[in-house]
Backbone:
């Protein structure tokens, strides 16, 4: 029934995922954790710079989102919590691989929905923080941060294509870049 709804390569990739051990560190090296790897937690500079710059601008010249605070607070905490959850799931999915020198393509967990779930999570956290604080500077700076992040992702995709070839091209065909 699903074969008509998804690309034909999907089932082949899923079967391959289930048979492939994804790890770049040798067993027993002590470098791998079943659930967490601190060096895999991304700190995207454009997001951090946007938060810092907009925070300083907000202190110098406050610019608040208009409207009721309650709605912004509820929406903001929902987005921030969702962003944290997505990022956490992505870090756990990548726990057996050192992302900076990966020898395996991660295509499980949230990576079955988005090729860049950590960036999606950070973006939701960024927007959530902007709404909770009602900081219009943060909302205004988000497109700039996203443009810089997008450029970085395009560079990363070129590296992945060179490193993993056909496997990455199939994955790219099956999974969207963001959501």
Residues:
């Amino acid at each position: 029934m699903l074969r008509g709804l998804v690309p034909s390569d999907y089932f082949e990739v899923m079967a391959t995922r289930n048979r492939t051990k994804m790890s770049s560190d040798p067993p027993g090296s002590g470098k791998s954790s079943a659930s967490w790897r601190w060096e895999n937690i991304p700190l995207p500079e454009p997001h951090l710079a946007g938060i810092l710059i907009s925070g300083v601008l907000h202190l110098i010249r406050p610019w608040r989102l208009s409207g009721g605070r309650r709605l912004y607070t509820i929406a903001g905490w929902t987005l921030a919590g969702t962003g944290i959850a997505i990022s956490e799931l992505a870090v756990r999915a990548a726990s057996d691989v050192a992302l900076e020198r990966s020898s395996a393509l991660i295509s499980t967990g949230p990576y079955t929905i988005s090729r860049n779930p950590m960036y999606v999570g950070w973006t939701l956290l960024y927007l959530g923080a902007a709404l909770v604080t009602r900081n219009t500077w943060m909302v205004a700076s988000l497109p700039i941060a996203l443009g810089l992040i997008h450029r970085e992702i395009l560079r990363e995709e070129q590296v992945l294509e060179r490193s993993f070839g056909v496997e990455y091209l199939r994955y790219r065909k099956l999974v969207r870049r963001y959501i």
In short: DSSP finds six helices and no strands in the chain. The chain has one domain: 46-174.
